Amino acid sequence: MPASHLAGGLFILGFDGLAVDAALAETVRRWRPAGFILFRRNIAAPEQVARLCRDLRRLYPADDPPLISVDQEGGRVARLRAPFTELPAARVLGRLYARSGSLALVQQAAAVTAAELTAVGINFNFAPVLDVDSNPDNPIIGDRAYGGTPELVSAVARAVVAAYQAQGLMACGKHFPGHGDTDVDSHVGLPVVNRDRESLEDIELPPFRDAAGAGVAAMMTAHVLYPALDPDWPATLSRSILTGLLREEMGFDGLIVTDNMEMRGVWGRWPPAELARRAVGAGCDLFIGGGGGLDGRHPQTDIQFALMEALAAQIAAGEVPRVRVEASLARIRRIKASVLRAQPDIDPNQVAGRIGTPEHQAVAAALRAAATAA
User: Fold this and answer.
1) What does residue 222 show for φ and ψ, rounded to 5 degrees?
2) Catalytic residue numbers?
3) Separation between Cα atoms, residue 326 and residue 50, nearest integer Å
4) What is the CATH class of 3-372?
5) pLDDT of residue 179
6) Do 40 and 79 meet the contact criterion of CB atoms below 8 Å apart?
7) What is the pTM of this model?
8) Which of 61, 226, 277, 369 has the most CB atoms around it within 10 Å of its CB?
């Protein structure tokens, strides 16, 4: 396998446009990326998303489909809007569980998300958020978290993971080892969490331990510095955090996925070659390239290509061992085989009847009613 395919196989790429064009097909031919991430700039209507996902799949062997991913948490972080069923933020689900002691509606909501994403061909959702909402000054997490205690977050997240993966949608817990106690947005800077190890063990880490034990397919890293765990490198680039803590101590054997590498918590702080080498050395299996700036809304950038080119050169030169990259590629294949259902060709003309159905809208209405109940 050429170094370009080895490197590309560790990348989830963003791209411009609503359809597969010649340039995107050439990117797939040259790099053979692991998959793609969809942003609002790629989404117009359910039928269009289904056609896009179908055509992306057709660029790959039928027995090795690409990962097609999205951030569909609910609330303010939801790339797919109406006529897709719009569900509330994680905080609403957490409060509902805290008040009722029941996870039934949480499970129904997650099942709606899984049904609608897989209907259009998306097979990987970057959710649930496992961060504990422990800092009221946090500019980026807030209502994206299920709540302010690790016990509540763990309980709700386990239900969400189970509902997603039962329908063949890979789940991804984020942002390891915890983004809840930050007062800086890692899109624009490098946050620092100054909790001691004991406090991290009490507050930040339990939801991730529980999700690992529950078989979540993937974990996303945080572009955050934790001096008690590694005084020098943010989690995405830290071997002691990703390999030492997540892999070896927690026993997690799913995919380790970086947060978007265009975010200023990492990009611009180190050269592309350093970022690629350190992330792979730390234990990352997949890079999210993004390709559209800090929030995925801007035109294509060269950042993800700079990272892939740097990694390919390092593999070719022997600076990054091929065996290390091949181990990640094998893990990606294994996780896909264990979670994804058969991926038949998608008929865009049949999608409308599976999106925003009366049954799905009833779940959304019940959540809205529960959120406003005394």
Assistant:
1) -105, 135
2) 187, 259
3) 31
4) alpha beta
5) 78
6) yes
7) 0.94
8) 226
